[in-house]
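Supplementary Note 2. Why include the ligand at all?

Several targets in our set were suspected to adopt different conformations when bound, so apo predictions alone were not considered sufficient. For every target with a known small-molecule partner we therefore ran a joint prediction. The input for xanthosine-5'-monophosphate is given below.
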Amino acid sequence: MIKMKEIKAGNMNLDKFINDKVQAIQQAVGDGLAVNALSGGVDSCVVTALGHRALGNRLKTYMIDNGIMRENEPAKVVAAFKKLGIKVEVVDASKAFFTALKGITDPEEKREAITQTFYKNVFGKLVVKSKAKYLLQGTILTDVDETVAGIKRQHNVFEQLGIDPQKTFGYKILEPLIELRKDGVRKVGAGLGLPARMFERIPFPGPALAARVIGEVTPAKIALVRKATSITEAALKDVKAFQYLAILHEDRVTGMRNNKRVFGNQIEIRCWNSKDARTASPTRLSFDVLEKIASKITREIPEVVSVTYNITSKPTSTIEVV
Ligand code: XMP
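The joint prediction is reproduced in token form.
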């Protein structure tokens, strides 16, 4: 098992870190080409900006629309990067992801299906098409820790598990943020001059909304959890929490609509206080806020009859549900 070096946000020499990583990327790629996938999450935004500083047009950035993103995410992210002078090409791959997820209910199998679709199917083809030899990605130390410890297989961890990306997928992977945790990544985002709303966003996982659907992931369930996510994010955007999310439960519960008994869906809200995602505790939201979220969700999503709030810490919980 490879022991990773950690650079703590508080000890980081920001200019030196950025310069060292820019040089390392330039050295690795030489006069060749690299690609990267921008998901809109904090880590991928920061690594995209860092990669473009190092390689300019020799880094081609794709946004893989996997069908499991948040509302309007591809268009929003493309527009935000256009303002920074970085061109992002959207690749519609939603069919491939939903096909791979069909019938799978086990959490680790779901994660594996997403990983294989992303790295082998979608990116394998893009790398061949673009003639790039490197994939630049924003893996951070917390992803590695939890994967190596066997807690959760994060979608972007390979070498630490003994998987050689060159042999398995046909390209090399560069991970300039791998010594950092989330607080360090945010500092690098600020150092690169990204707009604060980009690196101050709440974290969003690689497996996207599929990490928030218990049981089989279908287009209908994703559409439902996507609506609940929008409502939750809008309601909690001014709460100073580390991360907040909505989860679609598999169990149905009895509810009432128009004086009739219905067997409906249940949404769970989670809102976390945390520094680096390794441990977390539920934010003590006011009941007013919680009730507003519940009534908006049940008003705007007819299938949902019940909304709950998680009051468990990590551990024993994890931040996402899958
Ligand atoms: P968990 O659910 O493991 O999440 O407590 C810890 C942090 O990591 C994010 N997360 C992921 N990030 N790939 C990622 O890049 C993944 O597969 C993944 N799974 C969870 C999660 O949102 C939280 O911030």
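The mean pLDDT is 95. The pocket of xanthosine-5'-monophosphate is lined by residues 143, 146, 152, 154-156, 203, 205-207, 211, 243, 277, 314, 318-320 (CB under 6 Å). Comparable summaries for the other entries are listed in the accompanying table.
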